[in-house]
Amino acid sequence: MTEGDGAALAALDAQALRAAQAWGRPTRAPRLVQRRENAVFDVTLDDGRRIALRLHRAGYHGGTGVTSELRWMESLADAGFACPWPQRTASGALTDEAAGVTASALQWLTAAPVGAGDALPDPRLGPPTEVLHAIGALLADLHLTSDAVAPQDLARPDWRAPAFCCPNAPIWGRFWDNPALSPADAALLCAARDVARDRLAAIPAAQTGLIHADVLQENVLAGDGVFYLIDFDDGGTGYRVYDLATALIQHADAPALTDLRAALTEGYAAAGGPLPRAAFDDLPMFMALRALASAGWVLGRLPPGDPRVARYADRAVRLARAWLG
Domain 3-108: which topology? Predict the structure, then answer.
């Protein structure tokens, strides 16, 4: 770590300590546990609460969007859905801006991610198919509960067709500009985008609604026999099959993908999820769209030499080619 990195982390720690005061008095310095889109700190307050304090990335959602995320999560948790409860400040607010950044806090869950990266789920949780079956049931519960209790006036991202197929500015960036793509590969991704636009136009509105939009293994926690969904940072309105596709994307190259997909969709259907079984036929398209979006997500977030830039580009090409057939 360079001297500059150390200074930046020290400044972030100081900002977290100041932000935490809105929720109470920390018993010790906040501990940084994650620094991706948001910086997340482990904080114990003097009233006994342990919270996940989040400092939100500037320019992404802003206070209104974060408040909408937390209102949605609060409605879900109040209804019994397995996600962390948002913690309100001492004044009853869901967010605080006193530290010069939008800050929020969630209930700390004593649980661990079901897996990481492209590896199969933690074998201590059982066979991978059982884990995917449980995630399918969790997503069915998310969709059903959101329809029943979520506020109607949420300011959240829209994950419908323009998010993926806008020819100028898709939601996570111009994926065809990924520097690891050859001209031919960039053209292939644009062709997949254009074919998908027509297919998405035919999907019934009944198959859309509030979705998490980022069901990676790191965002599904397991503890005491319960699976929890965390990090609703990207959640909004979109195609519900996309949630299942994001739960599969890390396993796109797994030899057992067919079995994992079957387990996920069976878990969803068995739990009474609102999607008809025929909707699952679009999973390859939505996995390809997620791969395209991720190839754009790296732009502006990672330096060109980061290996993920090329890795995401390669995955996007492979999944787009496989889907287009």
Answer: Phosphorylase Kinase; domain 1 (3.30.200)
143 vs 212: CA distance, rounded Å: 9
Cα 161 from chain centroid? 18
The class (CATH top level) of 113-324 is alpha beta
* Secondary structure string (H, E, C) spanning 27-64: CCCCEEEEECCCEEEEEEECCCCEEEEEECCCCCCHHH
What number of other Cβ atoms are within 10 A of residue 207's Cβ?
A: 17
Stretch 272-284: mean pLDDT, rounded?
Answer: 98
pLDDT value of position 166: 94
* First and final C-alpha spacing in the chain: 46
Q: Where in the chain is the domain with CATH 3.90.1200.10?
A: 113-324
Instruction: Give the pairing of strands 208-211 and 236-239.
Output: antiparallel
* pLDDT (average), residues 306-316: 96
Angle at 290 between CA 289 and CA 293, to 5 degrees: 85
pLDDT at residue number 7: 83
Q: How much is the average pLDDT of 26-52?
A: 95
CB neighbourhood size of 10 (10 A): 10
- Distance separating alpha carbons of residues 198 and 193, to the nearest angstrom: 9
pLDDT value for 5: 65
The tokens describing 200, both together, are: 């998405």
Quote the CA–CA distance of 184 and 163 in Å, as a whole number. Answer: 23
